[in-house]
């Protein structure tokens, strides 16, 4: 997504993300540099997932889905269903369906 030469961001070498929390952006940058996120999962996974969705960072989206699926319980299943509805999250959706079979 970031390598489109016609985009202003590509021409300037700068991307301004003004509609997201700095914590989510930091987590995404950590993922870009290390391929993982060591902290922040528990309390920020939904926001990180939304940012990864917006910028089409598929590997980060997948890692977020795996984490949410591993934490699935009766207290967060509706939140997870909402995430699936808004963004599409096939791995998380499969986990929820399996839980109800």
Question: Can you tell me about this structure?
Answer:
The chain is mostly helical and 101 residues long. The chain is elongated. The chain has six helices and no strands. It has a single domain, classed as 2-Layer Sandwich (Potassium Channel Kv1.1, Chain A), CATH 3.30.710. The N and C termini lie far apart (38 Å). The chain is 65% helix and 0% strand.
CATH architecture: 2-Layer Sandwich
Query: Element order, helices and strands?
Result: HHHHHH
Name of the top-level CATH class: Alpha Beta
Structural class: mainly alpha
Pfam families: BTB (PF00651)
Protein name: BTB domain-containing protein
Domain BTB: 1-71
Task: Please describe the structure with a list of short key phrases separated by commas or semicolons.
single chain; 101 residues; mainly alpha; Potassium Channel Kv1.1, Chain A; 65% helix
Secondary structure: elements and pairs:
Elements: H1 8-12, H2 22-34, H3 41-54, H4 58-70, H5 77-87, H6 90-99
In short:
The chain is mainly alpha-helical and 101 residues long.
